[in-house]
Write a structure and sequence with these properties.
The complex is a heterodimer of chains A (about 475) and B (about 210). With about 475 residues, chain A is mainly alpha-helical. Chain A is built from 16 helices and no strands. The radius of gyration of chain A is 22 Å and the shape is globular. Helices cover about 30% and strands about 5% of the residues of chain B. A two-stranded antiparallel sheet of chain B has the order 1-2. In chain B, a hairpin with a 6-residue loop joins β1 (about 165-170) and β2. The chains are: A mainly alpha (about 475), B mainly alpha (about 210).
Chain lengths: ~475, ~210
């Protein structure tokens, strides 16, 4: 057995464990997203049921999406990438799975407690104070096996993907513990709220973005068979992101009860981060220059490239909304939800789907059952997320504009934006359907019902006709 | 890979992040949690010795329980408690948002306004009204209860859901009887008044 196959085999159970439980949480999260949007567009619905209020459904949805799906899928990717790049087998799969089960218990508690009315209205950190240590400890028990892998690596060259992975692994616990301590143990009420905003943007830049970029820097060269367009550019963008992301966050409370420099610094950082993001996305796209046809066939590449475009959109929209000119109407509007969902689902999840379509066949030794279902997953997800973002962006502008008209009745802003909220509801329905498709395929792979074949499953080609697809894409 | 290089990279990753962590979070946090009460001077024309942040006013009992209900129901996902200066939004122009305009007391929210709460409920979105000074706008408990039970009876276009699960159906007639939770929530809402005079402030119109 080759070294690579041995590594993949050692990763099989822990990585599959994270992917399948993440996919299950994703389905829960999208359904909660659907019902919370429905409740918001029809406020009178389920009036007597306390568990179906927007103020409980929406945070439960966010917790399931971030801790259930995004963190776990990210951990699965991190484990596999680190094993592959450092050429180390995963030595303690059972310990990792046990820690993963503990993480899932933490996620369940974080969703259930908020849903049953023990939350504290701090987005993404609104579980009771005793829940976060469970998450922190199980996270530590998982990554404690990742850092030594990196340290024992054979080669002296550090891949840029490894740097992104290492960054995400180190930064996440830092922001998570800081934010939770300040909110639960702190005595500065305003800073608790500010740290909460800081945590949300830092989660996007220090967990979502590095993992998405680690995937892109691994998968794009791998599939296209080309070297990264510019290695120095990749490194520069990494350090730019690393140095700037920690300063973001307070732009969400422009004019809020903070010293004015804090939101000004955050705005500036958000605008400069756009530079890092554009540099890195262009770098990845340039790697594909002249071979763009592959993305029609390769599911991994298609999802990854789409994710990178979404990352560029995220950088642009968060830079725009951090300026006073746009921000004063956009902050507190539906735009905020659009922006956060663009991070959690738009660029992160789409890129991670690309990684999962790449990784799972390698660790299970079988191919995805149906290219058609992958295509359905892609289009429903892509249409869903684009619908959601456009609805929330345009709806946010409409709502913010109405809010700014101080001599109109306040409820005008609600009436104006309710059609866009209905759009958000439809978008979540599309996404929920696409994820049902995804979970079904992943479950088939999990129980060993994948296709046994030497050729990968491609989107448009019949199984077994890989060569003609490759030829059409200009490869060989 | 040499152990040295590993620690160097890890150190660099830590160092770039330690800077914003320290200057944007830790130091402002320490400064704000050790803020001293600011005494009024004679020019302020206010009785009493200190304005916020006065930790002795820390919420307790029904009022803090009410804040917990507010948080648990996720009110902050739709209601902000931030009145921004005009350069960042026209909040001060909306009647009643900044406080008692007729008494010349309307102003933007300041850090000290939240000193009595464990966590400031600044809010995530503004789907509903800003509540910084709702205690001045809705002065009757009955009206506040009515707002929670049947929001549409006050504004047919309101997007607020009813919070009937905080009430019990009355055994006589068709009314609703508030539970302890509803009373505590109303206590909290009635207490939201963030227009206390700031020591040394120049108030418009004075």
């Amino acid at each position: 057995m080759s070294e690579r196959a041995a590594i993949d085999r050692s990763a099989r159970f822990p990585v599959l464990f994270f992917f399948t439980s993440a996919a299950a949480w994703l389905l829960v999260a999208t359904l909660l997203g659907f019902f919370s949007s429905l409740k918001l567009s029809v406020p009178g619905l389920w009036d007597n049921c306390q568990f179906l209020g927007y103020g409980r459904l929406f945070p439960a949805h966010m917790n399931a999406l971030v801790y259930g799906w995004a963190m776990q899928a990210g951990l699965g990717v991190v484990l596999w990438l680190m094993a592959r790049l450092s050429r180390n087998k995963i030595e303690h799969p059972v310990a990792i799975i046990v820690a993963g089960a503990l993480w899932n218990a933490g996620v369940t508690l974080s969703v259930i407690t908020v849903w049953f009315g023990f939350g504290n209205s701090m987005p993404l950190l609104d579980f009771p104070a005793w829940v976060w240590p469970i998450l922190a400890i199980s996270y530590a028990l998982i990554v404690v096996w990742i850092l030594p892998m990196f340290r024992q690596r054979g080669e002296s060259l550090i891949y840029v993907s490894e740097m992104f992975v290492l960054g995400a692994v180190v930064w996440f616990p830092w922001i998570f513990i800081t934010a939770n301590l300040l909110i639960n143990k702190g005595t500065a009420p305003v800073m608790a709220a500010g740290t909460n905003a800081w945590f949300i943007t830092n989660l996007s830049y220090f967990w979502m973005a590095p993992i998405a970029l680690a995937i892109a820097y691994y998968i794009v060269p791998k599939i296209s068979g080309r070297a990264v367009f510019s290695y120095p550019l990749a490194q520069v963008s990494f350090w730019l992101l690393a140095a700037l992301a920690g300063w973001t966050g307070f732009a969400r409370y422009m004019g809020g009860p903070f010293p004015a420099w804090m939101s000004a610094v955050s705005s500036t950082a958000s605008i400069f981060i756009l530079l890092a993001i554009i540099v890195t996305v262009v770098n990845i796209l340039m790697t594909l220059k002249g071979a763009t046809k592959i993305w029609e066939f390769s599911p991994s590449l298609r999802f990854t490239v789409f994710g990178m475009l979404m990352l560029a959109a995220y950088g642009l929209l968060s830079a725009i909304s951090s300026t006073y000119f746009f921000g004063k109407n956009l902050q507190f509007s539906h735009f905020v939800v659009g922006l956060d969902t663009l991070a959690f689902y738009g660029f992160f999840s789409m890129t991670v789907f690309g990684a999962i379509y790449f990784i799972v066949p390698r660790i299970t030794g079988s191919e995805w059952p149906s290219g058609k279902r992958i295509r359905t997953h892609f289009w429903f997800s892509a249409y869903g997320i684009i619908t959601l973002i456009i609805c929330m962006l345009v709806g946010g502008i409409a709502q913010g504009g109405n809010l700014a008209q101080w001599d109109q009745a306040f409820s005008t802003s609600f009436v104006t934006s309710s059609a866009y909220v209905a759009g958000r509801c439809i978008a979540w329905a599309l996404i929920a359907f696409s994820n049902l498709m995804f979970l079904y395929q992943l479950a088939l792979m999990f129980v060993g019902k994948g296709r046994k074949s030497s050729g990968p499953t491609l989107i448009h080609a019949e199984p077994g006709k890989v060569e003609s697809a490759k030829a059409a894409a200009g490869l060989n | 890979m040499s152990s040295n290089k590993f620690w160097k990279l890890l150190g660099a990753l830590g160092a770039v992040f330690a800077l914003p962590w320290l200057f944007l979070i830790v130091i402002p946090f320490l400064k704000m949690s050790n803020a001293e009460p600011v005494p009024y001077s004679e020019e302020d024309g206010v009785e009493g010795i200190a304005a916020y942040p006065d930790k002795t006013l820390q919420r307790h009992g029904a009022s803090d329980y009410g804040r917990q209900i507010y948080a648990a129901e996720g009110c902050a996902y739709c209601h902000t408690q931030v009145v921004r200066p005009t350069y960042a939004g026209p909040d001060m122009w909306r009647p009643g948002w900044g406080g008692r305009e007729e008494d010349g007391l309307a102003r933007e929210t300041q850090p000290g306004d939240y000193a009595t709460e464990k966590v400031a409920m600044l809010g995530y979105q503004r789907i509903g009204q800003d509540l910084s000074n709702v205690g001045h706008r809705i002065t009757s408990r009955d009206l506040m209860h009515q707002h929670l039970v049947e929001p549409k009876s006050l504004d047919p276009n309101s997007g607020m859901p009813a919070y009937k699960h905080l009430y019990k159906k009355s055994s006589i007639g068709s009314g609703y009887v508030p539970t302890g939770k509803a009373e505590a929530l109303v206590d909290y809402l009635m207490s939201l008044k963030k227009d206390q005079k700031i020591p040394g402030a120049i108030v418009s119109g004075s």
